[in-house]
Specification:
about 230 residues; mainly beta; Immunoglobulin-like; 2 domains; four-stranded antiparallel beta sheet; 1 helix; 16 strands; globular
């Protein structure tokens, strides 16, 4: 199944830091722990209620702008809570990573940075948390094999059970302009967890410099992305 759609989204970089640099005096972010090249756990403080935030990671000094879109969170009642985010493949082995939170509803932005090395802190516990409690991880995927101009094999992680997903490909430039996404696969996550699948690259993308991959949850609109060089791997 292949069809071209346009999905409106904002791409930027997510960065996290043990010392905070916030764009607002009322809301803030604190890095609670880091597992090198794997994940960062962040304490979000006094966030506004009933807003949706896209979360990005990127290179040092970028403030998360035009980075990897790694998650989406809805603040429901707002307040202070914990959230865990996986470090994307493209930022592994970076010394410093930026994390950014962009509201879709009010254009509010918070950003921070963190050292990509295993470390833990012991702050006061979070009280009154009603959502976004820590879980094993949010849905993501890793690159297993890339055949230049032909196919991409990926392996999913932390996918929930019994939900419907669509998989889209695009060029790197197309992803930034939010146009030209091509659906290449659709599936039910069945028992969830880890799944391996090979995605054929459409002819219109065979010579693109970069290929963007997006998994889209048909049931709730969650999206998880990554961007790969169009070259043989491994």
């Amino acid at each position: 199944m292949k069809r071209i759609i346009t999905i409106v989204m904002t791409l930027a970089i997510l960065m996290s830091a043990v010392s905070i640099s916030s764009a607002s005096p009322l809301s803030d972010t604190t890095v609670m722990s880091v597992v090198e090249n794997e994940s960062v756990t962040v304490r979000l403080e006094q966030f506004p209620d009933k807003e949706t935030f896209y979360v990005y990671m990127g290179f040092r000094g970028s403030q998360g702008i035009n980075g990897y879109l790694i998650s989406k969170i809805a603040t429901n009642d707002g307040g202070t809570f914990l959230a865990k985010f996986l470090i994307p493949e493209g930022l592994k082995n970076e010394d410093i990573i930026a994390i950014r939170f962009e509201s879709m509803d009010s254009n509010v932005v918070w950003y921070n940075w963190f050292y990509n090395e295993t470390a833990y802190s012991n702050p006061a516990p979070v009280s009154g948390t009603t959502y976004n409690n820590l879980k094993p991880g949010f849905p993501t995927f890793n690159l297993i094999k890339f055949v230049k101009g032909q196919s991409i094999t990926v392996q999913t992680k932390y996918f929930p059970a019994d939900e419907r997903w669509a998989v889209f490909l695009n060029s790197g430039s197309g992803a930034k302009s939010n146009k030209g996404w091509i659906e290449v696969n659709g599936f039910d996550s069945s028992e969830g967890g880890v799944m391996t699948m090979t995605l054929g690259i459409p002819s219109s993308l065979q010579y693109a410099e970069n290929i963007a991959v997006m998994f889209y949850n048909v049931d709730d609109g969650f999206r998880t992305y990554d961007l790969y060089l169009n070259q043989h791997y491994p």
